Amino acid sequence: MTKEKLGLRETLALDIIQQNKLLGVKSDSSGFKFWIRIFSPRFLPVLLYRLSYKSQVSGYSVFARIFSVINFLLFGIEIATVCKIGPGLFFPHTHGTVIGAVSIGNNAVIYQGVTLGAKDLDFTYDELHRPCVGHNVMIGAGAKVLGGLSLGNNVSVAANSVLLVNAPDNSVVAGVPAKVVSFKVLDNQSVEWYRFFFVFFILFELVKKIVDVYMVKVGEVKVALIGPSFFSYVQSIRDEFVRRGLKSDYFDERHSNTIFSKICYRFGLSFLYSKKKSEYFDALISRLIAGAYTDVLLVDVEVVDKPFVASLVQNGMKVHIYMWDSSHNKSGFLKFISLLSGKGSFEPEDCAKYGMSYIPLFAEDVFASALLPANCRKFDFSFCGTLHSNRGYFVNELRKFCVSMGLTFEEWLFFHSKWLFGVTCIFRPVNLRSFFKVSEKGFSKTDVAKLFAESKYVLDIPHSGQRGLTARTFEVLRAGSCLVTSNQGADDLPLELASRILVFDEIKNIDYAELQKLEGGPISASTDYYLSIGRFVDQLVEIMGVGERYLISNNVLDDKY
Hints:
By secondary structure, this protein is of the alpha/beta class. The chain contains 19 helices and 26 strands. It has 3 domains: 3-184, Hexapeptide repeat proteins (UDP N-Acetylglucosamine Acyltransferase, domain 1, 3 Solenoid); 219-358, Response regulator (Rossmann fold); 365-531, Rossmann fold (3-Layer(aba) Sandwich), CATH 3.40.50.2000.
């Protein structure tokens, strides 16, 4: 029987044999000692995982979830029910371990505090964003293996390492970010060759570091983008910088993205995390200095504070900011605005009041590629978004409007925590009507673009008192749909888009005759550019001054922009 076809009993037997081998004990097939080992805190988590995975692949996802939750509550380990792990799995300790890999091979040894998963928020469990782990791998305590990378066979990951790139077979990786520090010498490899390769690797890294530092000194621009992990928008801006040849990296402004920590930061309770926040910022400053970053772009920050920004400036970095929330919602940046070089915002009022440049938001290229003919629209109305503030009220009003007019309405509702959404229902009872429709899993941008392309009209609701145009505005219009919004700022959009925008005060006051006059479909190249992330980054480059220092002088801007 091959290992790919092993049943549950055979797999567990191999798990026990591997555990006994690693613990140096005899593999008793019966007796009291055997059952003691079965229910030990080292093996029982493996047993619960095997039951969870078996339930999942057999179509009993509810039982799979139950076994997974029991594992988490008893042993502090969270393993995705869809993650396939080969026989011989061993956990010396389990607490704080999170496993969200695509698959893990045979004879894996995983210590406490390990994280295997996606770099960014990934509620859809996209395998392209999650690691694949080979056979005979050892992952040390506190190590993080993140992103769609490949971990080869016989790899060892040192404790507290952060691995973001592929690791070849037989390698030992360590550091933050982790790199290959040595290769394991197998029986068929010569020690002399191994030593030569190791010395060559060290010399190569040394020369590369010297060249990197020299290049920065002679004028190379290197940008660090710092902001919240918010549906990967900041990462998309980073990717656009990189596409233009500008070295850029993204760093999360929060030390943690748990629901509790987000609530504390949002509602001014950051003192509960003062020590962890300070340690995280100190480490981040050290990384930025060591990485020779010349510019730091703060994107819609709410955790970053004045001492952090002052330290960056004192170390010779130019610090810029772009906000896609108004100062009414996030005012913390006003405490250090005098230290900033480039300043931009999507909110016209803040631009006029604080001397910031007005830069409207954008839609990524995936929304342009989703464009469909008007006669292919499946839905009359759609809405996709987080049910914060008073959005639940507007969504419910649109339901009633669509029923009265005989229109179809497709709604994709999101809230980061179901139980927390239940709390909002106490203060906003209208949210109860959406409780069973709200999902904790986000929607991919590809799916959202397809939804908009299949909709005649899309509803958008900004924060109360906000005139700045949301990213949703640009996404809807770039997908060729018509926008129905309560944002009075939509009147500031190019004239070509006026025929596909309806601004309302109350949904019940929408004139159906006026709604029918809206026309979607293809847009001109100039308007598409206005709605694009390319135009957005052009404006960022201008206020940051990196165009003169790098992009223009090196001729990396292409004709499109």
